[in-house]
Amino acid sequence: MRVKGMIHRIFTEMLRDKRTLALMFLGPLLILTLVYFLFQGNGTQTATLLVKNVDQSLITALKNDHLEIKATRASSTAKTQIRRRDAAGMLVQNGDKLTLTLANSDQSQSTIIKQSLQQAQVKLKMQTAAATIKTQAAALKQLQIALAKATGQAGIKGASQPATTEKAVTIKTHYLYGGADATYFETLLPILLGFIVFFFVFLISGIALLRERTTGTLYRLLATPVRRGEIIAGYLAGYGLFAVVQTLLIVLYTIGVFKVQIIGSLWLVLLINLLMAAVALTMGLFISTFADSEFQMIQFIPIVALPQIFFSGIIPVATMPGWLQVVAHIFPLYYGAQSMTAVIEKGATLTTVGPSLLILFGFALVFLVLNGQTMKRYRQV
Amino acid sequence: MATVINVSHLTQGYGKTIVLHDISLQVAPGQILALIGPSGAGKTTLVSAIMGMLRPKSGTVEVLDTPMPDRALLAKIGYMAQTDALYDELTGRENLAFFGTMQGVLKIELKQRIPRAAAVVDLQGDLDKPLKDYSGGMRRRLSLAIALLADPPLLILDEPTVGIDPELRQQIWAELHRMAKRGITILLTTHVMEDAEEADQVMMIRQGAAIAQGTPAALTAQYHVDSIEQVFLQAGRDQDAR
């Protein structure tokens, strides 16, 4: 009955606090929409490549949607020309020799140029094979070898392939998860879903308990026969329900507006977020005991919340150095985001994500016990 | 039941600092005991120890024949904290209902008790206002109403008359006397000497020690003065001389 009273109170307070409600429910939608558009257009990036004295057949081979080719005749060095014309790179042909200079201030643009050159190499190779006039073939071959050297200088490994005759190959791509139009947004979504719930529940519940401590209501509450566990359970259930509503809203929004596919079960998504909320809540309540004001609570965000993003899968954990991979395992969001990605993108079932969920549960349990202990400061029984 | 509160040789403190030295006191059913003393004297610490929020460093505390600390017994104590611990987002009625639920009052009983408790402190008309619109005095009265809500056999009121106007103060005292007559025991802290004069028994605390104890009449007679205030000043001087 007391837990019910706690939940009722938390609900009444939250529903009256319109700004917090808006922040909790509309804020994430705004952020997600922004992220959606930010990462939607991953096919539209272009790089400008300056070419000087380059054989017309190579230029034709280089042409693609991502590359803007501009011919130049100026005699100044590649460096000055790239700077002056704000280009991503410059390709200069001098007889059989090709020299590529990259601005390299934006790695993704450098990658576009390198990839285009590789593609051009393949195209030329196929043209060589198809060529009927031997002299033309020889010229193309020469060009191709020169190109291999240039790309080699630009840092591409394994570009030299035996220039034997090959049949034209058509490539058909199959996707295990997602489709051809899958964007980075779909990779980000499960991670964001976990993080948003974690962040909001951490902050709101932490500050709520902090306010209870500073206004004295926590002490007053403990002057009733309420159990410490009942207070924490009330918080858990009260804010947990808000977290579930928040998750539902975000999930329905992404399905409805962005047409994102959730392959696994929606219930599992809710369960994962409920566990994330439990960890965030117990952690928020615990951390709030080290803060004397709301301002100090905010100061914990860079320490507690931000590092978790790094290990949530935005940067693939498998590519991290060994010791960092170990560090990743102490962050709850690592498990949450991992299971969320598995369920949403790969349709993982409870048995697959079970171990991660158990670990999340363990986190919540540890912080729960710690909370019980810190509340002893106010009432020793 | 001879005593409702029985504190014997209580020493209490936080960490290594000692706040209370060797305090002993008994309160009989239906009695009003006033703890008086300057702020920082240890009144609130004594109240915390009696409620069992703190475990005694040495000595014993018994309330209603139960050794404290005891969580379940808190249901029988109506407590009013020194600072108004209330929820600003809620209305007066919601605050009463919430703390009543926490105290263990059933939902059906709350319906009758909330108006009754509010009537004592003259807040019936303001129950549905949000607490943001309450004045300091109204908040103090609501805190008192919360303490009265469960109709407990023991009331512990920490500075109940701070910020309450004289007319309402008299009204509250009349109610406290009525309750004492019904057998309810009341312990209150104050630094207002007029409050002390209303009490059956007075305990003066200064620098963590009890410096004088007895009925207001006996104390004024003992110190050959004509007011409790003068008793307090004299007892304080005696303490410093020791």
TrEMBL record, chain A:
Primary site of residence: membrane
Membrane topology of this protein: Multi-pass membrane protein
Domain ABC transmembrane type-2: 153-378
Chain segments annotated as coiled-coil in the UniProt record: none
Alphabetical list of InterPro entries matching this protein: ABC-2_transporter_component, ABC2_TM, ABC2_TM_bact-type
Membrane-crossing segments per the record: 21-39, 188-210, 231-255, 267-291, 303-328, 348-370
Keywords in alphabetical order: Cell membrane, Membrane, Transmembrane, Transmembrane helix, Transport
Localization in the cell: Cell membrane
Family classification: Belongs to the ABC-2 integral membrane protein family.
Protein name from the UniProt record: ABC transporter permease
Species in which this protein is naturally found: Lacticaseibacillus mingshuiensis
UniProtKB/TrEMBL annotation, chain B:
Matches recorded under SUPFAM superfamilies: P-loop containing nucleoside triphosphate hydrolases
SMART domains per the UniProt record, alphabetical: AAA
Keyword Nucleotide-binding on entry: yes
A GO MF term: ATP binding
The keyword Nucleotide-binding appears for this protein: yes
Pfam families: ABC_tran
ABC transporter domain span: 5-232
Domain of life of the native organism: Bacteria
CDD domains from the UniProt entry: ABC_DR_subfamily_A
Keyword tags: ATP-binding, Nucleotide-binding
PANTHER family, sorted: ABC TRANSPORTER G FAMILY MEMBER 20 ISOFORM X1, ATP-BINDING CASSETTE, SUB-FAMILY H, MEMBER 1
Protein name: ABC transporter ATP-binding protein
Annotated source species: Lacticaseibacillus mingshuiensis
